[in-house]
Amino acid sequence: MMITHGTFHLEINEILTELKNKVDHIFIKKYVTIPKFPLIRLQLLNLLLFQASFPRSLRKLYCVTTGLVQMGLDVHEEIVNQKEYNEREIRSRQLSILAGDYYSSQYYSLLSKANLVDGIKRIAAGIRDVNIAKMNLYTENDGKGFESIEQMIEIVKVKESTLYLQFLDLLKTEEERLFWKKLIEDMILLSSLIEEQKQHQISRHQISYLLVNYFASTTERREIVDNKPEWKIKVKKLYHKYNIQRKIEELILNIQEKLAKQINQIENLFLKNELYNIFEQIQGSIHEIENIVKDV
Residue 56: is its pLDDT beyond 90? Predict the structure, then answer.
C-alpha cells in the first residue's frame, strides 16, 4: 500500500497509542510527572525509517521502543540534585529513577522478543552517546569550557538527536545520510528551543541555562551551581543581564531559515509535504509564545 498523509497520520496515532499503553502505570502516575510524548521526534524517525524502506510493522516497533527510551531519559532529566526532606518528594525522586529505568528497559524486552539484535545495538549506542553528550554539557566540556556557542550547540544536538540518527547508515547514499542528519538535528533543536520559550522557568538541563552559564562570570557561575533555593532567582537575573531571550530568538530564526531551504530542496512530494507539516507544527508554537508574558 502506498503511504499517504492519511496513512502516515494513522501510523503515528497507532505509535502514540502503543506508547501510552506502555508508560501508563497507575503507581508511577501517582508520584512521577510523566513527560510529554516525543511527537516531533517520532514523526521524524518514522519518516527516516520509511525512507530507509522499513516495513510499517518494523517502523512502528522502532518508534515505540525509541519513544520509551526518550521518555525514560526525560524522566531522569527532571530529577534534581539536592537533598529532599519531605517524604513525598523523597518517594517521588526514588520512583522517578525507577520509572526512567522501567521505560528505557522495555526497549530491550520488545526488541529481544522480535529477535532484533541489531536494533538493540543501535538504540544502546544512541543511549550511550546521549549520556556522553550530557556529561560534556554538565561538566562544561570536561572542565575545559566551550570555545564558542556553536561548539556547545553541536553537543546539544547530539544529546537531543543522536537517538534518532542510529539508522542513518541504512540510507543509500552519503549525500542522503548527511541531508537527513542535518534535517533531524535542526528540527529537534528548533522544537526544543520553542518548547523552552513556552515555559515560565529555567531548568538546569535547558539550553537557556547553558547559555546563561556560558556568558556568566566565574563568580556568577559559582552562585548558580549552588543548590540553595535562591539559585533560580539568580539565574533569572543573569538571563536578563545577558539578554538570553534575544540570543535564543536569533538562534530560532537562523534554524528556521536553514530548515525552509533544506525542505524546499526535496523532490519527493510526499516527503516534502510531510516535513513541511512537521515544520509547521513546530512553528505553530511560536504564535503561542508571542502572547505569553515570560516570567524569567
Answer: yes
H/E stretch holding 286 reads helix 269-290
Burial (0-12, 13-18, 19+ Cβ within 10 Å), 89: middle
Give dist(CA 145, CA 259) in Å, integer. 29
**CATH code of the domain occupying 5-290:** 1.10.600.10
Tell me the pTM.
0.89
Counting other chains too, the contacts that 28-36 makes at CB distance below 8 Å and 24 or more residues apart are 28/95, 28/99, 28/102, 31/88, 31/91, 31/92, 31/95, 31/96, 32/75, 32/92, 32/95, 32/96, 32/99, 33/78, 34/71, 34/75, 35/71, 35/74, 35/75, 35/78, 36/74
For residue range 216-255, list pLDDT tens digits in order. Answer: 998 888 888 766 667 888 899 999 999 999 999 999 999 9
Considering the chain, what is the average pLDDT of its residues? Answer: 86
**Annotated domain spans of the chain:** 5-290
